[in-house]
UniProtKB/TrEMBL annotation:
Family classification: Belongs to the class-II pyridoxal-phosphate-dependent aminotransferase family. Histidinol-phosphate aminotransferase subfamily.
Protein source organism: bioreactor metagenome
Domain Aminotransferase class I/classII large stretches: 4-269
EC number: 2.6.1.9
TM ranges: none
Gene: hisC_53
Name by which UniProt lists this protein: histidinol-phosphate transaminase
MF-aspect GO terms: histidinol-phosphate transaminase activity; pyridoxal phosphate binding
Pathway connected to this protein: Amino-acid biosynthesis; L-histidine biosynthesis; L-histidine from 5-phospho-alpha-D-ribose 1-diphosphate: step 7/9
GO biological process, one term: L-histidine biosynthetic process
UniProt keyword terms in alphabetical order: Amino-acid biosynthesis, Aminotransferase, Histidine biosynthesis, Pyridoxal phosphate, Transferase
One family name in Pfam for this protein: Aminotran_1_2
Amino acid sequence: MTADQFVIGNGLDGVFTMLGRAFIEPGDEVVCGELTFSVYAEMAEIMGGKAVKVPMTDNMELDTDGFIDAVTGKTRMVVFCNPNNPTGTGTGINDIRKMLDAIPEKVLFVLDEAYIEFADENTADGLTLLNEYPNLMVCRTFSKVYGLAGLRVGWIAGDAELMKYLYKVREPYVVSVPAAAGAEAALEDIVFLTESIEMAKNEKKRFYDFFSTNDIKFIPSQTNFILLPLGDASVRLRDGLLEEGIIVRLLRFRGKGIIRITVGLPEENTLLMEKFMGVYEAAE
């Protein structure tokens, strides 16, 4: 890949702002998941377009066939989060290819891979497909595995001609000098990256074992968070853990509560496990 295939943005929120400005016009449709990163739908609506949300599968996964079926003559962009936020599920290379082969080349296909570093080999690496599909763009960020969310550095890669359109709408001075320096240093610190990925993998396994032993339903994850579809108990669980000094994310899906737990440091995860069952039993 060459330098003209990349554009740097003010975090991935900033990248999606550029995508909207560059490519979405009133009346255009943007296809995305029913339960996914909310910025995709917001981008479409801000630009006067329409978000077409594809229903999740029964396993809380993004439905690749559903994405293909949702594309119409009005579709300008498909945004596919892999691994998906907030479910943590991943999609393999064959299914990504299937969508790219089925979708017209005039439709832009954006892969959001914010959490890709945490995923195993079963989750597709979109960068390996860039030179095969001129309508494909891949987004990544320094906010997750690199731990630099506060610096706001994200990037998008794709065909050089597509990148030219993004540069036309890109704000000047979009990334500060300290942020750029931090991102460069992060890329060089391979030891930190490797240790962070390994710790997240090991600690996630601890959570899997804990939830399985206690018959707590969870969604296996390709990220550094785990989703618990706990329904009515979710609000009380969130509030009870907060009283113990533990913050978890409360979300809603089809009117039911779900909890997203970020995998933290080992001592933080131990504290959560120590407090969880007492709070959960009270919440039920």
